[in-house]
DNA sequence: CGTCCCTTTGATTTACTTCAAGCTCTGTGG
DNA sequence: CCACAGAGCTTGAAGTAAATCAAAGGGACG
């Protein structure tokens, strides 16, 4: 996992690295014709570099662009009160940031880099103009975002009635799956997220996150070293993740 | 709360009861011009009656229509396994059902009536054709659904790290607000939802839901009689709902 | 080298689930 | 009309998962 962007990959000949990331983000790797890709390439910015803790955009800023993650990891936080901010998303390579702002006119959250990251900017106005001419692209984009929303919804509802064990397993599997779909190892990855951030995403304390990871480790389900994760028993993790409810009711 | 639909209301002269409900659902009561309303009226079906436990549509059925709730209450459930189904939404008068299917091609959940309900069907193809000609309507529809999605997201993330007390307060306030926005009493309403269903929506057991309601009642925050709710102290409920975390960390 | 942040580990407390029993409604068939 | 079944709701007692509080160890970075 040294380089996230892959040149000349994705079935579109001659696609630049940044284009490849955008295609991924927009279409979940379902191919577009070369001509369509070429048109898309024209409106994609060259990769933008964000240092650790740099802010991609602030909550309430006017919406004008989507961003495709090329490398690195970002987090999204929404301030709901003066006192409370919610960590509502992590963004990994291949993810499309900003979809939740479409229709709102403003970004509903602040997005910042957890480590050095590169993203490609997609000016939304130009993207929309493009989808007018390319109905296939429009459909793919809509399908991708709808599916993502639905999945997130389901996961959040599942988490609500689950133990810390199941929540964390669920989370790790989502991350694993995300890496997998983008062509990286589903079992060995670096996740540059503090225990505290994982905790606030899952509604747990950092201590519980740490302890649960330790438990997993002692059960040989995975190995953790700081923020390096190696999943050893995906099958068992899935079983844990989908174990209904807090404890098993007996019939 | 005997009649939910209001005739000749909403600033659009001569709007039928069903049209009024759809306007509400589509535009959050922000007025459209009379001509626009008239066009919308043409594609809205007359109210459809659903008996208790009747299914509006099944999960996986092909998507073709949105539905605006005129009266009654419905619930939405998604089956994720053979073993597990999640209760992901309740639908009250003025809500627009089916938006989560846009872009997916299929309904991602089963929706059924909790009590006798009436809904208006909005064939999506005709609605889309209409929005081609009425950009204002398109924008309003998009804005309404985006806002709803964002709010749901935020609420779910809030619930994740809250106690049963806060979850229930949050839930009651959302319901109250929904009724309020549609012109009903925010403090006195019938919510024909079993404790069990509230529990699975909030990730709690029915016992906890019942006990928490009892606690509220003993604190004079509300009165419950079966499924009739009377909120007595909205301010305190809001305080409870937004009390961060499980317990208050002391600085 | 020392400071700060992140993480781990331990002890205690508490909120919620589980299990169980009884109670209130509603509808149904004798 | 009453008996009775069944679902929904309530209440109690016990157990457990996770939060809280506290303290100490490890890295990164100035």
TrEMBL record, chains A, B:
Record keywords, A-Z: DNA-binding, Transcription, Transcription regulation
SMART domains in the record: cNMP (SM00100), HTH_CRP (SM00419)
InterPro entries: cNMP-bd_dom, cNMP-bd_dom_sf, Env_Response_Regulators, HTH_CRP, RmlC-like_jellyroll, WH-like_DNA-bd_sf, WH_DNA-bd_sf
Keyword Iron-sulfur part of the UniProt annotation: no
Top-rank lineage group of the source organism: Bacteria
Matches recorded under Pfam families: cNMP_binding (PF00027), HTH_Crp_2 (PF13545)
Residues in HTH crp-type domain copies: 162-235
PANTHER family registered for this protein in UniProt: CRP FAMILY TRANSCRIPTIONAL REGULATORY PROTEIN (PTHR24567), FUMARATE AND NITRATE REDUCTION REGULATORY PROTEIN (PTHR24567:SF75)
Protein's name according to its UniProt entry: Helix-turn-helix domain-containing protein
């Amino acid at each position: 996992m040294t380089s996230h962007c892959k040149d000349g990959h994705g079935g579109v000949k001659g696609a630049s690295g940044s284009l490849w990331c955008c295609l991924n983000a927009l279409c979940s790797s379902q191919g577009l014709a070369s001509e369509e890709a070429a048109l898309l390439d024209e409106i994609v910015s060259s990769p933008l570099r964000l240092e650790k803790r740099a802010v991609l955009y602030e909550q309430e800023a006017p919406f004008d662009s989507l961003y495709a993650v090329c490398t690195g990891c970002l987090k999204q936080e929404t301030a709901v009160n003066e006192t409370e901010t919610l960590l509502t998303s992590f963004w990994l390579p291949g993810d499309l940031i900003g979809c939740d702002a479409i229709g709102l006119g403003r970004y509903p959250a602040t997005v910042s880099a957890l480590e050095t990251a590169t993203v490609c900017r997609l000016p939304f106005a130009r993207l929309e103009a493009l989808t007018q001419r390319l109905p296939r692209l429009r459909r793919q984009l809509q399908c991708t975002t709808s599916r993502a929303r639905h999945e997130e919804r389901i996961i959040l509802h599942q988490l609500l009635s689950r133990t810390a064990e199941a929540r964390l397993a669920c989370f790790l599997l989502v991350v694993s799956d995300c890496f997998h779909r983008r062509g990286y190892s589903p079992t060995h990855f670096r996740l540059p997220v503090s225990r505290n951030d994982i905790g606030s995403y899952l509604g747990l304390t950092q201590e519980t996150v740490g302890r649960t990871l330790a438990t997993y480790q002692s059960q040989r389900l995975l190995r953790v070293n700081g923020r390096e994760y190696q999943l050893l028993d995906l099958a068992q993790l899935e079983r844990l993740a989908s174990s209904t409810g807090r404890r098993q009711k007996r019939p």
